[in-house]
Amino acid sequence: MTLLHRVIAAVSLLVAVPALYAADAREAYREQWPLQLSAPQAGAYRLTLGEDQYRSAVSPLLADVQVFNAQGQALPAALLAADQPLAQPAQWQALPWFPLPAQGSGASDDLQLLTERNTDGSVRRVEARLGRSGGGAQPGGWLVDASALESGVQALRLDWQSAQALQVRVRVEASDDLRDWQAVAEGVPLVDLQHDGQRLQQRRIEIGRQAKYFRILPQGSDVLPPLTAVQAERVPTAQAIQWQWRPLAGTAGKPGEFEYTLDGRFPIAQADLATNDNSVVQWTLLSRDDPDQPWQVRAGPWVAYQLQDGSGRNQSQAQSLAVPTRDRFWKLTASQAQAATAPTLKLGYQPEALVFLSQGEAPFSVAAGSVHAARSDAPVGTVIAQLREQRGAQWQPAVASVQGPAQVLGGDAAVQPARDWKRWLLWGLLVLGVLVVGGFAMSLLRQAGSARE
Fewer C-beta neighbours within 10 Å, C or N terminus of the chain? Predict the structure, then answer.
């Protein structure tokens, strides 16, 4: 074997070592569960996470939950909150709209709207008065009345009649009083193109907020098409999603204090208490993710009571946390130290959804529990929004569900960061390979020097 062949072999070793380590990414996770797909060819799927996945995960951001195909390749996925509309059927509602007259190029801020409203606050008539600043005329826009909506607007969808090709940009503004306007989006494209029997349309405008009125204005010299209808995609209410509860038994600490440990990375958003007897105590709820961290107030102080009498059982309402959290350690503190028995702490959450796109061969599986690997959320929301434009507003990802018990992958070693001997061995081989390549290079330099002499 010549010296050149030895150098090539050493370089190949440097490339092969990392490849061996990343051969099957599933080995970096504690366990996995096989998935069953409701529609094998759907392409996009929605998996509602269960208790097993939350208990196995260790990441505070739930980044160690990932979907894999049969070859062990991670699939594009994103974690969505329970009330995230992109993972649910879209809810559309028609809205009244009013055309705005053309305005001067510099009169955007001089547009005055005089409105007549009904008793419920909806707009009956709009009269626009324009300032005189600016020169040549520009096309007007549209005023959309969303005051009848109880929830926010996720997006607006426009319908128009136009036989010509269309590609314009618009600016969207929001207001609650028709006087003060705030920019929502800039440079939003509206597209309607046809060629060779194919049609490309972009009618959706992302809003993602709540306001009574929206103003859609053209940008530059773009000419808007004749509008025929406006629909709003409503933001679903979180109250319609079923709550899950984790009851925890506490241990007594200081007088009037009780500590609890949560057995998973659940997205806790509510808290409730239960006692074996009648009680009334003012409590404060705190949490932290590490025993060495300071406690953070999550709810309260609030008066929690429970009264059992002949008419039934009465108790106080559950408390909403200011910010949802996945903390492991929880503590209840009584305003007075008279509470001698730890109440049952019930922590409530709404299961999240992991939306993923299928790639490669089935079967697919979901893995959880790792301190070595982390999921990078893919922009699957954009794909879902475009698919709804193509397939209809009610289209949604197909359902994926866990089918069968957990299968051990890396086991408990996947969640133990200390003393990863396999990684140190691989790094040792990598350093050894570097030294070998360096030795070969020095040998080549010496031989070249001897040849010159």
Answer: C
